[in-house]
From TrEMBL:
<dbReference type="InterPro" id="IPR036497">
    <property type="entry name" value="GLTP_sf"/>
</dbReference>
<dbReference type="InterPro" id="IPR014830">
    <property type="entry name" value="Glycolipid_transfer_prot_dom"/>
</dbReference>
<dbReference type="GO" id="GO:0032691">
    <property type="term" value="P:negative regulation of interleukin-1 beta production"/>
</dbReference>
<protein>
    <submittedName>
        <fullName>Ceramide-1-phosphate transfer protein</fullName>
    </submittedName>
</protein>
<dbReference type="Pfam" id="PF08718">
    <property type="entry name" value="GLTP"/>
</dbReference>
<feature type="domain" description="Glycolipid transfer protein">
    <location>
        <begin position="29"/>
        <end position="173"/>
    </location>
</feature>
<comment type="similarity">
    <text>Belongs to the GLTP family.</text>
</comment>
Length: 211
């Protein structure tokens, strides 16, 4: 990067802290804190460039939709539980012309599962290992099952160009590689908690198969 250019590097400490704040009482998840963490994760995709274009543009759109719902109707969209209950009671899940929060958050939830699995595998390889293999494996275990064949094929092919772990971390973390590596285990722990709570709430309301 050119000297003096403004690059917003990725900071896993920020992700960790926001997801930690998202874990509220009654096994619920605060949506604002969830989105704050996700916005930081989104930087990762931006810094990686076109490799993750198959997921990054979609994620940004979903984050913006939920942020808009939160701003317009914050009382009902404080937590995932309150959002689902509000949208179910008002039959918004069946409303054709309404972009509902539950469906939107379900897409982010699936994307987060992919990010978590990729970062988990990234933490287990050496600096000289290529990241393409673990990224493809993480994708095939998570997001791929929700994508049509054309997108799956393009995504896997794009991943072949991914660099070694050392180069990837330098690209997305700048001078703060060690800081990110140190917090990664704790960040993964809290992310799993957020994922499990979200999954359980969608299970409880039988919304995992929302179209």
């Amino acid at each position: 990067m050119a000297e003096g250019s403004e690059v917003c590097y990725f900071d896993l400490r920020v992700v960790h802290d926001h997801f930690d704040k998202a874990l509220v009482q009654d096994d619920d998840v605060n949506i604002k804190a969830y989105l704050d963490a996700y916005n930081e994760l989104y930087k990762f995709f931006q810094l990686m460039g076109s490799v993750f274009s198959f997921v990054s543009s979609d994620l940004k759109q979903k984050i913006d939709v939920l942020a808009d719902l939160l701003n317009k109707n914050d009382r009902n969209y404080v937590t995932i539980k309150s959002m689902i209950e509000y949208e179910k009671e008002n039959k918004l899940l069946e409303k054709a012309d309404y972009v509902n929060g539950a469906r939107t958050l379900l897409r982010l939830h699936r994307g987060l599962d992919f990010i978590r699995e990729f970062l988990r595998q990234l933490s287990e390889i050496s600096d000289t290992d290529k990241t393409s293999t673990c990224c493809q494996d993480a994708y095939n275990k998570t997001l791929a099952k929700y994508h049509p064949w054309v997108i799956r094929k393009a995504a896997v092919v794009a991943m072949y160009t991914m660099p070694t772990r050392e180069l990837l971390l330098k690209k997305v973390c700048g001078a703060n590689v060690q800081r990110n590596v140190d917090i990664l285990p704790k960040m993964l722990e809290v992310t799993v908690d957020v994922l499990n709570r979200t999954h359980n709430l969608f299970d409880l309301h039988q919304l995992q198969a929302l179209p």
